[in-house]
Prior knowledge:
homotetramer; globular; 8-stranded mixed sheet
Amino acid sequence: xxxxxxxxxxxxxxxxxxxxxxxxxxxxxxxxxxxxxxxxxxxxxxxxxxxxxxxxxxxxxxxxxxxxxxxxxxxxxxxxxxxxxxxxxxxxxxxxxxxxxxxxxxxxxxxxxxxxxxxxxxxxxxxxxxxxxxxxxxxxxxxxxxxxxxxxxxxxxxxxxxxxxxxxxxxxxxxxxxxxxxxxxxxxxxxxxxxxxxxxxxxxxxxxxxxxxxxxxxxxxxxxxxxxxxxxxxxxxxxxxxxxxxxxxxxxxxxxxxxxxxxxxxxxxxxxxxxxxxxxxxxxxxxxxxxxxxxxxxxxxxxxxxxxxxxxxxxxxxxxxxxxxxxxxxxxxxxxxxxxxxxxxxxxxxxxxxxxxxxxxxxxxxxxxxxxxxxxxxxxxxxxxxxxxxxxxxxxxxxxxxxxxxxxxxxxxxxxxxxx
Amino acid sequence: xxxxxxxxxxxxxxxxxxxxxxxxxxxxxxxxxxxxxxxxxxxxxxxxxxxxxxxxxxxxxxxxxxxxxxxxxxxxxxxxxxxxxxxxxxxxxxxxxxxxxxxxxxxxxxxxxxxxxxxxxxxxxxxxxxxxxxxxxxxxxxxxxxxxxxxxxxxxxxxxxxxxxxxxxxxxxxxxxxxxxxxxxxxxxxxxxxxxxxxxxxxxxxxxxxxxxxxxxxxxxxxxxxxxxxxxxxxxxxxxxxxxxxxxxxxxxxxxxxxxxxxxxxxxxxxxxxxxxxxxxxxxxxxxxxxxxxxxxxxxxxxxxxxxxxxxxxxxxxxxxxxxxxxxxxxxxxxxxxxxxxxxxxxxxxxxxxxxxxxxxxxxxxxxxxxxxxxxxxxxxxxxxxxxxxxxxxxxxxxxxxxxxxxxxxxxxxxxxxxx
Amino acid sequence: xxxxxxxxxxxxxxxxxxxxxxxxxxxxxxxxxxxxxxxxxxxxxxxxxxxxxxxxxxxxxxxxxxxxxxxxxxxxxxxxxxxxxxxxxxxxxxxxxxxxxxxxxxxxxxxxxxxxxxxxxxxxxxxxxxxxxxxxxxxxxxxxxxxxxxxxxxxxxxxxxxxxxxxxxxxxxxxxxxxxxxxxxxxxxxxxxxxxxxxxxxxxxxxxxxxxxxxxxxxxxxxxxxxxxxxxxxxxxxxxxxxxxxxxxxxxxxxxxxxxxxxxxxxxxxxxxxxxxxxxxxxxxxxxxxxxxxxxxxxxxxxxxxxxxxxxxxxxxxxxxxxxxxxxxxxxxxxxxxxxxxxxxxxxxxxxxxxxxxxxxxxxxxxxxxxxxxxxxxxxxxxxxxxxxxxxxxxxxxxxxxxxxxxxxxxxxxxxxxxx
Amino acid sequence: xxxxxxxxxxxxxxxxxxxxxxxxxxxxxxxxxxxxxxxxxxxxxxxxxxxxxxxxxxxxxxxxxxxxxxxxxxxxxxxxxxxxxxxxxxxxxxxxxxxxxxxxxxxxxxxxxxxxxxxxxxxxxxxxxxxxxxxxxxxxxxxxxxxxxxxxxxxxxxxxxxxxxxxxxxxxxxxxxxxxxxxxxxxxxxxxxxxxxxxxxxxxxxxxxxxxxxxxxxxxxxxxxxxxxxxxxxxxxxxxxxxxxxxxxxxxxxxxxxxxxxxxxxxxxxxxxxxxxxxxxxxxxxxxxxxxxxxxxxxxxxxxxxxxxxxxxxxxxxxxxxxxxxxxxxxxxxxxxxxxxxxxxxxxxxxxxxxxxxxxxxxxxxxxxxxxxxxxxxxxxxxxxxxxxxxxxxxxxxxxxxxxxxxxxxxxxxxxxxxx
Lengths: 420, 420, 420, 420
């Protein structure tokens, strides 16, 4: 018998299973790890999940189920929900509440359903589930051991909650895992955002001036791949250290007011709001492309843009031509929503293997240290992070060295120096 | 009247001053900072310095002197000492004990002289001065407020001292400054090591297989520049996270035993000993080039190599052809000593501006918090590190953004999320 | 009244016009050129066209029509035909015979219709139209002034026809235009093929071993972009000069038998047949991706593969999983057909502006020199080629220098040398 | 007994031989070729050589001698002459007239000596020898079968001579060999010029704006390596095709008047004169670095600069600080002479193996077709050029494929097409 759920169509489960199988082929690190969980260490644990409902997430969910956990799930972004996957996961015994393109109202209803599941552990993406559990309070809140959060935007919210004393259980910032930052934010975002730009526009990248708004891990990955596709890259930043790195990476760094005038394509990756203002948009060249790689839609002032526009039309899927009062028009991709998920298909499966190993490790760590972790937004222990890297290397077939005992000793000594 | 000193020839001071002037032109970040020290905040402080005696170091020393400090100095590497600079610094009123090519015995004598200066603060490179002060003990040791250390190798030694309870005063790991790691270890080492390879050998880089032994900041910089010059890069590592990054950066990762057989050029940057063993050297192709980017000579087993060699000769300055029992020969650059300093001229001046701003900031921080810092190997506060980045950007003429108050508020909030 | 035609549905013309408008926005070089043709220099000329029926081709066709020409057209690849565009071009007054996914039999019927148009000039892509006109012979053949050919594969056929004395009118190898080779084969193919790989598979490129089979202009573009996306690139070649360039570009060069064993993804760009044999496919790793960037399907031995396979299924659109007798399976993209057109959307519009300016210039040149050009496969005069570059630069807003009279004189002199 | 000669000191021959041996190690393609010349095909031929007198040239000369030729030689650039090599070549039986730093007057005397040798064949670099032989005329001129020219600058002069009917024997433009353009002009110049910049200045490249003046093979190589070392590259050009390539390679293209204002370093590679005018130099930033990668000193208007300067001094070897009337100063490297030879050591030996195989092939071709080649500046037959690539690949140990008979047949057919 199927668990409680709300999905588009259970008949889609067949196609969903096929897609999950394809994902598993490229997520060997996670699949291998799953094979080690035969003793079902998460038996009896209820886990609430708020993640993008994609074939890769399904591989994580199946791994949690294999470990004995019970799952209630919703999708953190209405447009990333794949209805086939939602159906297939219900078939796997999960309570899934997610439909592609659901309204804001439905989204909150789904979150509420998941909260009502009375979870022990949360897996969150953007912090909306965590905030909802805190809002609910009472026994539901008290029941939570802890959880983990997957995005920069969510971690910023968690740290602010912790600072304000609002956070009531430990949350592991899996977003800040070294392996996640490197593989997902840097390489994954780099590839999938340029993929999104090309699919949405089919525009030529070579010779274009691509403005990377923000030069954190995501922005660096985007800049690297834009350069790799032949673009001239311009970087804008508010933080001096990131700006310095961009300059020494050979990119032009300038204030956004100047970049607005020279750019052909803009990609925001700041985790902040209004990284591109509507005033700046109005100084752009006709035909400029606007897109956002960040979690939330606010990085570009889309509301402001909608207020000033004189016309708009969809010229291709996910590509809206917006005419400005000047008569010039710009293209907005995916409505300003997360570029790689709206205009492409999110990260490659292989990338998500690394990210989701972080969630697995975090869930096990929270569960194994119930009541012992500080009530704060904390990091995954580095040795667990390194294990993820080792699992991924093994899946890739990459061999590397181990230190000799003599080298181990040397690295621990301090007497050797100028002359040995 | 000149202070106590031991340098090659005071007549070289004229040339030394010219060189320092050239360095200052490219170290505007530090020179600008110097101009703000008119109130001489380090008056009465005795600072012992163990650094490479180069024109760039001289710009730091002049800045410390401008801040009111008294200086005793030696050179941390006999072959990097520029006698012109040593002379010019004596002229600036510093007690310099350093001669190019001095013996190991002389080196220890010079260190002793500097220790006898009874310093309040140490600026160290490789930790030899710090170890010597601890060995001296007594009032000399008690007199020290703290200091800073500039290299990975030195920081490893300091952390091990701290772990063993051997460290007796706070040492700031300026090596670990974000700005230092980025600018000096990554970009600086990258450029100067390839410069060293080209000067020593004049070999063609394009099409060569360059083996980067170690993929920390230095190794990554070297790999990036070797690739930028057309090499096929192979990486060896003992740490899974670094190995994963190398693999995703598009490099072949393999154990050193395999890399030894395919490489044309080898550059070690591990901070460890015997990263290349004499057994591995004997499996290399004839004509292979061996070099070390690390602080200490032990990264390549040069002693072992000297034991097995059947002949050797200097074919070019800093390029020794060493014949192996197999009849094949390999080239050892700079005797296995620090590649960029022995075969080229160390880091570009601009790089050292950033590194030495770290020392300035560390010295001021230690001095300003005398007795209040933990007796440990600690980091420079991040806000001081960011100030260095800002100073360097200003020197480069790079402009960047500042957050609007609305953005500052957003970054501190946690209630905004799925729907604003 | 509409001209004779065979297209899917004339109602699609509305959408077709919208797409053509989007293309024109990115093909300003060609649109600007069109505005100069008010005197209709091609009035009364019948032009037969065998090109991919895409929005970009439509911009060329509209330019020919603006110049006064009458057009009959078919699509050179059944799967690249966009039915909306076919309909819109009929609306522009062209005789279009092209339907998406038409059978081989239909394709030949369409070619025959176009041949029956009794063209003065041919614009060909793959040489099938030219061969058909020669096969038809008689008055139809006699009526042809000349034409141009757009692909490497077609030019090879033309040169062989010319060598055998079979070619009966001059054909300009617009494929060999400097501007076409550079912009279309190199940058265009590079971007669009990687776009195709990512859309078809969503696989991660970073860290993958991508085998570029062939290192001509197309292969070099593909290799550059694969590297730009983080791949390890391996090149196979049969020509020593191309192999040498690949090696010095920092890529591993090896025979295909070896490359088959190490590659994760394979992209053929040789213009030859069976660049990857079925025997080599059977030595590949499970999960290997096979794709072809060349004009014809024969570069990979797909027929051979179909003979040995034990199973196959479409796992995603354009991505077929083929199980080999060994039990391992490989993925074939787009059935081995032209990767960028089957799995992505062909070249970006901007690229095609350059290519199609070549056709415009060639048509005008053939028309203007009727009976005076050698009956051979010949090149476009270099000064016309340079005009294309200048038009494209103007469209991009790029300014460059002109030589001073003094410099012009210097470049023509030979007496100045060691001392001026 | 030694032949007639004028060199610095015959005692230097010992060191010269050692250096030549080192070069031979990296020029295996040429050394292997030498081993095939046991039948001395050039016996009795007198060859006049005007090339840079370096260890690599010596390997060519030894190969010519091994083939039976008699040699008279001078150095085409006074500052590139290595006196050790000159001495060693006299020891090999060659008439060498070359001393490092010789005056313009001596240079012409040396050229005259070589002309008086009554050569059958000329090997020229910059065309000065060829012009001198034409100026001499008479029997000397009549005696010449033909020759070859190594540089872009020289080929421009030759083509102009041919156009004016002034050229009296066939000259092979070995400069235009595909292998030479690729390996020497592109990769070789790229590496050695950046090597020269770093040796002369020790300036940091990362983050600098490097202006590549000219985007031919040399300019492209320089731009590629400047980018590879972290620079922002700006390109100036007078030719639209080259400008278009630079733009699509992701570089900013702008007129020199604008580039002058934004550049930190300038490298000319145009083959033209006054590519940087003194007016433009006066608009540059203080501290700008000026250098020339071209054959002749005129690319930068050094004479004009010397006229306006208010002061100058050598701050490092090959680095002159020149103060402008504005009070700002710029750095001129190597006096504006050929950067890689004055500030570094010219091309790597391996590069010269390819270039000099071109000379060997050209000399043999001219000799084998005496009286049959057109009296013009002509190209080396492409199959000989491909042999050079094959020899170089063999020396590098690179394996590649050969076409199957089926593939050979396919490449010659024209009937196969849409359906096989």
